[in-house]
Amino acid sequence: MLRSVARVVWLLIAIAVPSLAQNSASDPRLKHSFRQPEKNGWTFVHLEGQPAEIGFQHGYLLAAEIEDMLKVSALEMAHDEKKDWQFFRDAARTMMWPHIEQEYREELQGIAEGAQAKGVKLDLWDVVALNGTLEWEYYVKQYDKQHGIQPPTSLVAPEHCSAFVATGSYTRDGKIVIAHNNWTSYLDGQRWTMIFDIVPAQGSRMLMDGLAGFIHSADDFVVNSAGIAITETTIGRFSGYDAAGIPEFVRARKAAQYSKSIDDFARIMKEGNNGGYANNWLLADVKTNEIASLELGLKNVTLKRTKDGYFVGSNFPVSEKLIREETDFDTKDMSMSANARHVRWEQLMAENKGKIDVTAAQHFLADHYDTFSKKEEASERTLDGHIDLSTRGSQPWQPPFGNAGAVQNKAADAAMVTNMSFSAAAGHACGKNFKAQEHLREHPELNWEQGLLRDMDAFPWTTFSVAK
């Protein structure tokens, strides 16, 4: 009798599970959304609707990837910031949440609900903490100082990314060209392979690269339907954070969604600026053929713009006042990655004046010329960064940044931005593959990444466009 009852219960469960999955898949919130099969290392996801709907679609379609990303973030935070994941969940709830406007609250909650519908065990505070990943080190540095805690020696604003934007006499057709490669740990980089096509009920449509679970691009390469193109590089050696401000990830997403001009972008990013993930933003407006650089510190903000010229970024600060008041950056040390790459950008802009197009941009992002050693050798000082290959760092590269580099690349011209498309290459633009186990054997100090670190192959450049 007991066996018969047990068998009935088992059958009911077996019937109920696919029924639940079917009900979730037919959820009206998923209408118009879809995920495409991986293409040359990238996963394309289309999201559309009201904020809660976009969030639910995101969480549902990328549930497994979000679960995986949470494991990575918790591991990295524990290792680098010396704080457990609960610390960041608590800060997300008490410090960040009060400063997040309703639209993005609904989207964040939707992500949690979508992932839960697929059986992932997480909640809203996991999702908010995940979105704050890139500004936590700024917050932790201030938190530790306020609480008399000695911060980890590796807790400095990292050097993320190389980028440029050009227009006028510097480009082949006189119109804008913009490009960017993302520097981060290989743990993150292997997962920074989402292409989001987002059609919100309010604001502009956006095409951007990103990470599963994040409402913003995070490394910030975005084109929107108002003709605005956005990218950035972090300000190296920066310190400062205002816990009463609006989280950077909220401002970055809002600026991408609602900017119709360079002035819109600057206004949105400055309003409630908390200093988190301080960047030099490179911008373009294809309607006016104007480009801009917004160096956004906490105390010092500088906006420069031109219709004939270029701006470059490689984590070097520009404003002397910002350097003096908000960084400990050494502008005279040409062995530093940021300075060496800055020199290389200036060389490439001068050598290629009047010839810059998307093809040239792709070559720039694969460049291995080291201006300090005066050699062709991939290292932390080359635009296609290979920190893992460096034999001598200009500063003590701490894990995971001893296990990092330029993990993916994007480029676009005015025609592509107008048509809402861009070219992207997952992995190193030079074509070199990264092999996890080989690297861990050579660097046993990174064994804490074992189990989550995986291979990162280089894929060809591929053009992605919004869904028709």
Keywords:
Penicillin V Acylase, Chain A, six-stranded antiparallel sheet, 468 residues, Penicillin Amidohydrolase, domain 1, alpha+beta, 36% helix, 2 domains
Query: What strand order characterises the main sheet?
Result: 1-2-5-6-7-8-9-10-11
pLDDT < 50 stretches:
1-23, 392-400
CATH class of the largest domain: Alpha Beta
**Radius of gyration from the alpha-carbon trace, in angstroms:** 22 Å
- How much of the residues is beta strand, in percent? 15-25%
Shape from CA axes? Answer: globular
The biggest beta sheet reads: 9 strands, mixed
**First-last Cα distance:** 58 Å
Count of extended strands: 17
What is CATH's topology name of the largest domain? Penicillin V Acylase, Chain A
